[in-house]
Amino acid sequence: MILIAKKNDNSNDKNNIKEIEHKDKPIYVKVSDETRDLIDKYKLHGTTISDLVRNAVKCYDDFNSISPEIHATIEKYRENGESDISFIERAIKYFGDQKNLDRDLWVRTRDEMKMMLIGKTTFNQLIAAAEAPKESLEKPWHKNVAIDLILWYNDARPLKNLSIGEIIKTIQKMWVVANYFHTIDVVKESEDEFHALFRHRQNKRYSSYWLGYFTELFTSEEIPFKCEVEGHTFEESLSLIIKVGYKK
């Protein structure tokens, strides 16, 4: 019994040695002159070929382990002929620039303090509305700066070149960014009808203000479509139905 056990142990040892020998078997590969120059460059700094191979394979594996969504983003924003490392450097610099602008601080104040991003014209409108009688909201509606913001968001494309869907999408994006509303849900009921639900944390007077504001916007002469607006105001939400007619 003891002899058999020893024999089995020796057999296992041989298998283990064989396994080690197999993994330690040298890898031979012919490399280009460019690769050889890079190897020589780092060998001068004391880096072994084994370390170079290990680090290169690890780097290759890390990059190829990135999710398909991130790879798609890289391909989308990478400039023609731009290398991976050049793109990564540019992305990191962009991230650093954004951090230096304290944009993360704005996100925190928006989420934690419920602060709004208010331009000068809108601020003056709200002051005027606060000073006016409760039933008088018409004056601020007419000083409507939404079109300026829509043009800015769409890279100054002429308003006549924008679809009604693009205009509504801009409002859905920017009015949440500014924290006028915490969510805006838009449903395209048909080719010529949209339903938008605006949610906020204010009151029904606030809903009434924005109903007048958006009604003024979508029925203004500047909008390239003939639109009809139907709205309903509630304490913490505003429901808007936009029916699109012919293009002007």
Poorly predicted sequence stretches spanning 5 or more consecutive residues: 1-9
Shape descriptor reads elongated
Estimate what percentage of residues fall within beta strands: 5-15%
Radius of gyration: 32 Å
What oligomeric assembly is this protein in? single chain
If you average the pLDDT, what whole number results? 81
The biggest beta sheet is recorded as: 4 strands, antiparallel
Q: Could you give the distance between the termini? A: 99 Å
Helical stretch count?
A: 11
Quick one: how many beta strands?
Answer: 4
Spatial arrangement of strands, main beta sheet: 1-2-4-3
The helix/strand order is HHHHHHHHHHEEHEE
Sheet/helix structural class: alpha+beta
DSSP helix fraction: 55-70%
Structural account:
The chain has 248 residues and is of the alpha+beta class. It is built from 11 helices and 4 strands; from the N terminus they run ααααααααααββαββ. It has helices at residues 2-23, 33-43, 49-64, 68-77, 84-100, 103-113, 120-131, 138-142, 146-153, 164-177, 204-218, and strands at 183-190, 193-199, 225-233, 237-247. A hairpin with a 3-residue loop joins strand 3 (225-233) and strand 4.
Spell out the key features of this protein:
disordered N terminus; 4-stranded antiparallel β-sheet; 248 residues; elongated; 14% strand; alpha+beta
Short description:
Helices cover 57% and strands 14% of the residues. It has eleven helices and four strands. A four-stranded antiparallel beta sheet has the order 1-2-4-3.
